[in-house]
Amino acid sequence: MGTMTDGTTSAERIAAEAGLLARLRAGEDAAFAELVRTHSGRMLVVARRIVGSETDAEDVVQEAFVSAFKNMAKFDGRSTLGTWLHRIAVNAALMKRRRARSRPETSIDAMLPQFDNGFHKERPEPFESVTNTPGGGILDRETILAALDELPDEFREVVVLRDIEGLDSKAAGESLGIRDSLVRQRLHRARQALMKLLEQRMKGSQS
Amino acid sequence: MTTTPAGTCGGGARPEISCQACVDFILDYLEGVLPPDQKAKFERHLNMCPNCVTYMDNYKTTAQLARAVGAPPEAPAPVPAALVDAILKARKHAHE
Q1: What is the pTM of this model?
Q2: How far is CA A4 from the centre of its chain?
Q3: Positive or negative, the Cα torsion across B10, A189, A42, A9?
Q4: Among all residues of chain A, which has the CA nearest to that of B71?
């Protein structure tokens, strides 16, 4: 039996979660308070990662909990409450971001590799030659997030869900309301575009 | 650097699949879902095309960098008491 970092066993965790769920379904106020106190910190981290601002992230967490409370009867117990809430928070954050978008949607095509008669039009340069620079730090977290931010939403979202939040294609597709094959297709193009954007930043910081 | 110039592939030998097709296969290849015949063509292409090898390495690095943004998972953020209260109040309002 696995032991968690806080010393509880996984069996104890499962029993505690089942107990909490029963109390939630019974509408017990203290159970809802416990749910919020237990999970809101992680949800806030996720929301902040997607929407950027602290105020917006708090709004997202609140919207996510309101949605979770409404849909508590639909929680089927196939995942943990934490995983379920994580997904709701991701969806709420993505929605918030879409609503807030003021810039026009850009096309991803210009960010994809160009081919001439099937061959690479430009010779790809190894990333390591530009990442192993004295001092390093060119590709820090902020740089990656800024590059990610340049992707059109539908492509950015799949990178957030698959690579950053660690969902598989099926779960990401369920969050976005698209087939998992489309998630993979978008992920592939998004990673290629992100590669180009990172490359431009690395080159820019060298010159 | 041994990379061939852009516009060529593998020192004159004609590849079975183009660089463009090779690049299209990268995700499926990395996730192990490329059908065996396509996988064989893909690997033969990589063996003769340093440009595609470099491209795939950069692709893998990009995915690793994106994953690094979310891992290791950050510790839960401290939650303002006012936010907890607002959430619980919102639930009460929804019931009224």
Answers
A1: 0.78
A2: 25
A3: negative
A4: A164
